[in-house]
Amino acid sequence: MKTPVFVFDSLNLVRGGLTKAVITRANMLTNEFDEVIFLTLRFQSNFHEIVNKLYDSGQLNKKIKVFNLFDDVMTNKLLPDRRIKKRKPVYQVQEKGFDIFKDKRDVPPSYRYYKNGLYIKYKRFNNKNKLVFIDYMTEGRNRYRREEFDLYGNLVVARHMDTRTNKPSLERYLDAKGKCYLSVWIDSEGNPYRTLLLNNKQNKEFKSFFNFKADWINKKMEDITNPVLISDSRKTDELVTSIEGKKIAVLHNNHYKKPYDGSNGFKETWDYFLNNINLFNQVVFLTDEQREDIKKEIGEKSNYIVIPHAAAPVSNYNTNYDPLLAVSVARYTGQKRLNEAIKAFSYVVKELPNAEYHIYGFGEQKNSLQKLIGELGLEDNVKLKGFTTNPTEVYQKACCSILTSAYEGFGMVITESLAAGTPVVSFDVKYGPKDIIRDGVDGFVISQRNKEIMADKIIELMTNQSLRQQLAKNSKDVLERFSSSDYSKHWVNIIKTV
């Protein structure tokens, strides 16, 4: 019996499409394999809380075992600390002897601490008034150390800063007793290199952080029966190929540089994968179009296979939708180009003043998007709704959904919308829209990035309800075209036969 092993950055409660897709696949594989394992690589002070919430909410099958690099090598595990009530004032906002100023720009709140006119430190708290980190300053107002705390008030990371660049040059990870169990040096480009594992009598030095991660994975492999390692990100390709065993790479994203259409070559982050594609036993594409593009560039390989994401069945169809509502479920990032969607919707509002556009997501562009909404005078029409755990409900309330991404790997939001009975209006980008949407049958694919044409299609759906209902009826075919049974069969087969 084989054991699927996902080598992955991190799991989280608020997550994008990649993490959602990987969790969906892992849950499916528990039906066929005795063990399914995640090896996660990012430091998360609340790692156990995240995993337990994923289990308890049913989002992650409890048969799946999740190990984290930092948590696994820690000597004294970080458990809930009852001593938090006895902590010194450093864990509180008020501190005797300091002049304290609240930073009005930050939400949650932050505070700057002065003594005799000198800026000494900066504290950030979360929404529950728990201390998140403290920055310490030199007399020249340069940050020389950051201390980060977990949910229980334990100091978990000390980042020692290069005062010239304001970036970490050394990171020390601390256990429940305050002992450093891992020390990582950082170069001027922000890359970790020399690493010290300080594990009582088994101290070990690594020339690179990469070697440390590989050593950890190799040790985990010793306890796993016939592991099949899966790399779902180009960040983990080199690490996965350095490990003995069977290997699968999955392509979740567009591999081209801007403008993402093949006219400007490959992204540098894809160099290792494209130059070492033969090191993988299987390479899984999500779309036929991307497979053909790679084939044209580097030739056909015997390890290529296309397995699109499955469309998730909907348990309850709600046909009571708002004919003047459009929605998007997308991260607030540059890739999603939500600014174009908002501008396109401004044309919709000129024709239909009561039309609304709700955007569900999270990300660093939230403030800039809100500013754009204000500049266009769309505050009553366009709403940033935040992250949703129930996209099906969001889609079923709407007349249509909108996709304006610069690029995608597949576009799970398209199959989710169609499965919910909601037509999609999308720009034609690599990859996904024209593989999934049947233009004029269950949505519209706009070949040029023309916001006025997009607006016309949205208006057409909002004003022609017989058309909208016909497209909605056709959209449910997505469950057969991208069936869960086919998806499961293909994935189980390649893991068993790899």
From TrEMBL:
Keyword annotations from UniProtKB, A to Z: Transferase
ATP-binding found in the keyword field: no
Annotated Glycosyl transferase family domain residues: 319-477
Domain Glycosyl transferase: start-end pairs: 8-183
A GO molecular-function annotation: glycosyltransferase activity
Family annotation (Pfam families): Glyco_trans_A_1 (PF09318), Glycos_transf_1 (PF00534)
Protein name: Poly(Glycerol-phosphate) alpha-glucosyltransferase
